[in-house]
């Protein structure tokens, strides 16, 4: 469901973890990109950010508060930001936001709270570096 306040959101100052063009091949018959494609970008972006924060492998433990705010259309520039919002001993949360930028305008597409856990080679939780 579209968020009437989507145009009032402010894109983060952080560099995007993913910057790409939404593919025409992933659109529905009505025009917007499939939500599954957007969620796959969330997965990739959270993983990239998580590896940098944890210094190694991570897994997504939970997707919380996932909201789609506006449609994304094929051919639009797509930027995904991932910012640390909580840090524990082995887990941490990322505030994810995704944005479309057609012709210089900026529109929020998605926001989510993602819980990740740092893991060792055996797939067991490990402590985050200091």
Describe this protein with a few key phrases:
130 residues; single chain; alpha+beta; HotDog ACOT-type domain-containing protein; long-chain fatty acyl-CoA hydrolase activity; 37% strand; HOTDOG_ACOT; plasmid; Thiol Ester Dehydrase, Chain A
Lay out the secondary structure:
Layout: E1 18-21, H1 35-54, E2 58-68, E3 77-87, E4 91-100, E5 107-118
Antiparallel strand pairs: 1-3, 2-5, 3-4, 4-5
Give an overview of the whole structure.
This protein has one helix spanning 35-54, and strands at residues 18-21, 58-68, 77-87, 91-100, 107-118. It has a five-stranded antiparallel beta sheet, with helices on one face. The chain starts with 17 loop residues before the first strand and ends in a 12-residue tail after the last strand. Residues 1-6 have low confidence and may be disordered. With 130 residues, it is of the alpha+beta class. The protein has one domain: Thiol Ester Dehydrase, Chain A.
Short description:
The chain contains 1 helix and 5 strands; from the N terminus they run E-H-E-E-E-E. It has 130 residues and is α+β, with helices and mostly antiparallel strands.
């Amino acid at each position: 469901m579209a968020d009437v306040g989507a145009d009032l959101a402010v894109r983060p100052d952080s560099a995007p973890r993913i910057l790409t063009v939404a593919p025409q091949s992933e659109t529905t018959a009505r025009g917007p990109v499939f939500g599954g494609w957007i969620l796959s970008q969330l997965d990739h972006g959270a993983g990239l950010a998580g590896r940098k924060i944890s210094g190694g492998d991570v897994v997504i433990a939970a997707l919380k508060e996932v909201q789609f705010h506006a449609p994304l259309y094929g051919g639009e520039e797509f930027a995904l930001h991932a910012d640390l919002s909580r840090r524990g001993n082995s887990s941490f949360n990322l505030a994810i936001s995704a944005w479309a930028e057609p012709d210089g305008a900026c529109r929020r597409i998605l926001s989510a709270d993602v819980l990740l856990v740092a893991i060792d080679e055996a797939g067991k939780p490990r402590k985050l570096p200091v």
